[in-house]
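Example 9 (inverse folding). The structure is encoded as follows.
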């Protein structure tokens, strides 16, 4: 099936309207598309100041593929642009260079759906990162296909299966500073004010769900201004305690399956952003999920890889109706 056929299926699904959710009368809509990652990626430039400019299209050598995901490689010293697509079997497709590797596995593959690998030793060499310096990212990012106001949904349901394949620290004891160096795998949403005329219109905060942090069995909560590097947004980050979604630490080779309604935590983060002066109002009618990203940030010299499967984020719409905002 090519991307045009897949787009037609998606369009017909959206035209058919929402599906019934788990509770009687509830209706569920996906917030993001291509959660099996088969349509490929628009590759970012390593320099985040390039914004959404596309350095290359990783379309798995299928000219009919129209990617909806961006693959962000900010801070890398070795871009994936120019890497060739490799097919390891009938369904697994990959791109690779000395510093990173991505694999998109087919529906029945042992590698389904996505593997993200960063080779920190190739990125940093023998020199550990210093304060104020940028660090490599490898993450997938997508804008929401529909904007659902927070007061028009009963739940924001997300699910994901994760398997840590490896995480190796290549820094010496003298070089390693846990306040500066880490390997982190996490998910972030942009919670954005979408109401025209609002004092906060267009402003946002970062809502985070941490899955793995090399310094902790389960990542702790984190609330602070986005800072520490030149391309930081200066916006409020509210990353919840990892135990909120997971009580089983990610260990090499072990699958962990997570499911959670994130809406109460998103609303709590919004109130916290207002309380700390980053936003002016916490009216849920004014805010929606506008964007998400999922992947690695490697501010330390770590070689890491993780496998993702069965990922989804969905809005469970209120039974009495909902608004769609484009």
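The amino acid assigned to each position is listed next.
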């Amino acid at each position: 099936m090519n991307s045009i056929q897949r787009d037609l299926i998606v369009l017909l699904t959206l035209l058919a309207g929402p599906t019934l959710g788990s509770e009687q009368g509830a209706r569920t809509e996906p917030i993001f598309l291509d959660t099996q990652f088969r349509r490929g990626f628009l590759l970012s430039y390593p320099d985040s100041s390039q914004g959404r400019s596309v350095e290359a299209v990783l379309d798995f050598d299928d000219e009919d593929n129209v990617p909806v995901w961006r693959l962000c490689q900010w801070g890398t010293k070795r871009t994936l642009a120019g890497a060739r697509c490799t097919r390891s079997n009938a369904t697994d497709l990959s791109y690779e260079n000395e510093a990173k590797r991505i694999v998109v596995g087919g529906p029945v593959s042992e590698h389904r759906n996505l593997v993200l690998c960063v080779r920190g030793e190739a990125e940093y060499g023998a020199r550990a990162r210093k304060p104020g310096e940028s660090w490599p990212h490898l993450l997938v990012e997508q804008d929401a296909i529909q904007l659902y106001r927070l007061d028009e949904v009963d739940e924001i349901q997300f699910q994901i299966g994760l398997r840590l394949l490896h995480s190796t620290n290549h820094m010496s004891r003298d070089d390693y500073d846990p306040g500066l160096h880490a390997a982190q795998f996490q998910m972030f949403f942009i919670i954005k004010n979408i109401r025209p005329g609002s004092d906060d219109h267009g402003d946002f905060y970062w809502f985070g769900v941490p899955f793995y942090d090399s310094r902790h069995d389960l990542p702790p909560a984190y609330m602070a201004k986005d800072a520490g590097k030149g391309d930081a947004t200066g916006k409020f980050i509210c990353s919840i305690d990892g135990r909120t979604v997971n009580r089983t630490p990610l260990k090499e080779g072990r699958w962990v399956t997570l499911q959670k309604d994130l809406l109460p935590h998103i609303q709590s983060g919004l109130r916290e952003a207002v309380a700390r002066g980053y936003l002016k109002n916490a009216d849920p009618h004014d805010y929606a999920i506008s964007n998400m990203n999922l992947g690695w940030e490697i501010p330390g010299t770590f070689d890491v890889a993780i496998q993702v499967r069965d990922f989804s984020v969905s809005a469970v719409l209120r039974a009495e109706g909902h608004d769609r905002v484009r």
